[in-house]
Design a protein that fits this description.
The chain has 298 residues and is of the alpha+beta class. The protein has one domain: Acyl-CoA thioesterase, double hotdog domain (Porin), CATH 2.40.160.210. The chain is 17% helix and 36% strand. It contains six helices and 13 strands. Strands 1, 2, 3, 4, 5, 6, 7, 8, 9, 10, 11, 12 and 13 form a 13-stranded antiparallel β-sheet that branches.
């Protein structure tokens, strides 16, 4: 197994401190603070560890309260809110330096039969017909801040192929939607709960950024301040995170320094396996140094 894939699986595998208390480590992947997908995936992992394997997560609703410190571990406290005949509910609080930085409410269900329908997957080229993202030229890379250089030069555990690539360093204005094929870079075990935590982690990539498309801005620009405020996710059907999945994203609205994005995740045969939604802070500030500060919720 490659180092980046094994590191991610280790990152999502928490240390159990007590029955309902877990500790996870943090990784610096080039973002200013702890990557939101990391906290989401770890919180889901903590909740899953308090349940029978037969109960699978079907929905997550989370709020990001404070930016996470990359240099410190995160403690996850699980509240076993309810265990009914068919459904279970867990509430997870992520704590760092003695303060909550994140809340998650998750619902789990025993397998049941019922009516079924779904929207159709968009008609787009397959991943094998698309080129991987081109490397940033060395001369351009040298002009960027260290954090952005680390982010752009990293070989992450997931491979992404954009149907409509966009130059994030010189972003044009365009309609607020995109489709991205992605998969984990290496085959892993069959445990469904592992694939759900991997998908939760990956679902935070590219989602909020879609709300910047009509405005010709991006996270990489020094005067742009962006931060996730919440994240919702619904798991519909079985899937594997190590097989190609299509992330179809749109942003129906941006206002009040906030942008809203929605996503649908399909497998190669067109089954809708998950849906997402996220609202985030998007500010363009005059002072680029101010943009680097931790966004407040006030």
């Amino acid at each position: 197994m490659t180092s980046t894939v094994s590191e991610l699986i280790e990152l999502l595998s928490l240390e159990r401190l007590e029955d309902n208390l877990f500790r996870g480590q943090s990784r610096d992947i080039g973002t200013k603070y702890v990557f939101g997908g990391q906290v989401l995936g770890q919180a889901l992992s903590a909740a899953q560890a308090t349940l029978e394997a037969s109960r699978a997560a079907h929905s997550l609703h989370a709020y990001f309260l404070k930016a996470g410190d990359i240099r410190a571990p995160i403690v996850y406290q699980v509240d076993r809110t309810r265990d009914g005949g068919s459904f279970s509910v867990r509430r997870v609080t992520a704590i760092q330096h003695g303060q909550p930085i994140f809340f998650l409410a998750a619902s789990f269900q025993k397998p049941q039969d019922g009516g079924e329908h779904q929207l159709t997957m968009p008609e787009v080229p397959g991943p094998e017909d698309l080129e991987p993202a081109a490397a940033v030229p060395d001369k351009v890379m040298a002009t960027l801040p260290d954090k952005i250089q680390r982010w752009l030069s990293r070989q992450g555990p997931f491979e992404f192929r954009h149907v409509y690539p966009r130059d994030e360093l010189k972003p044009p204005k365009r309609p607020p939607y995109q489709q991205v094929w992605f998969r984990l870079g290496e085959r892993v075990g069959d445990a469904p709960e592992l694939h759900r935590t991997l998908l939760a982690y990956a679902s935070d990539f590219h989602l909020l950024g879609t709300a910047t498309f009509p405005h010709g801005i991006s996270y990489y620009q020094p005067n742009v301040q962006m931060a996730s405020l919440d994240h919702a996710m619904w798991f519909h059907r079985p899937f594997r995170a190590d097989e190609w999945l299509l992330y179809s994203i749109d942003s129906p609205s941006a206002q009040g320094a906030r942008g809203l994005a929605r996503g649908q995740i399909f497998d190669r045969v067109g089954r809708l396996v998950a849906s997402t939604a996220q609202e985030g802070l998007i500010r363009v500030v005059v002072d680029a140094q101010a943009a680097a500060q931790v966004p407040t919720r006030g």
